[in-house]
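U., I forgot to send this yesterday:
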Amino acid sequence: MLIVVGGVLALLLLGGVATGFVLYNRAAAPDRSAPDVVVVNYLQAALVSRDPNRAKLFTCDGSVPALDEFNAQAVRREQELGVSFSINIEGVSVAKINSSNASVVAVIRRSASIDGIQQSLADTWRFDVQDRDGWRVCTGAKVG
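Result:
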């Protein structure tokens, strides 16, 4: 009887561990389910959180040089002005090319209060994304 109870408890414990592992993996996995979702998640990681390791999870090759330079310029400007920019991603739209390639347009707005005056700049960007076992940002460029 004691062996049966011990076996049942062991199975319940293993089932709980397996369930916890699956739920954790789902919660921690990056969402690359759609072209617009991956662009927003990439921009959040790269510009808002400034977490390059997290940003790489959403890219084809680990880096989008044009956006990396944009971010570096923003950081330099923050230091020069002694402010922190608030970054908003707006107007995200998808122009799907085919089932594995798409183009996504997004507006990146930087806002800050400088000398007591609220100011903001908005730049329109176009990102090329590919479905590589989930959508990934491959290139990005400022439009105009």
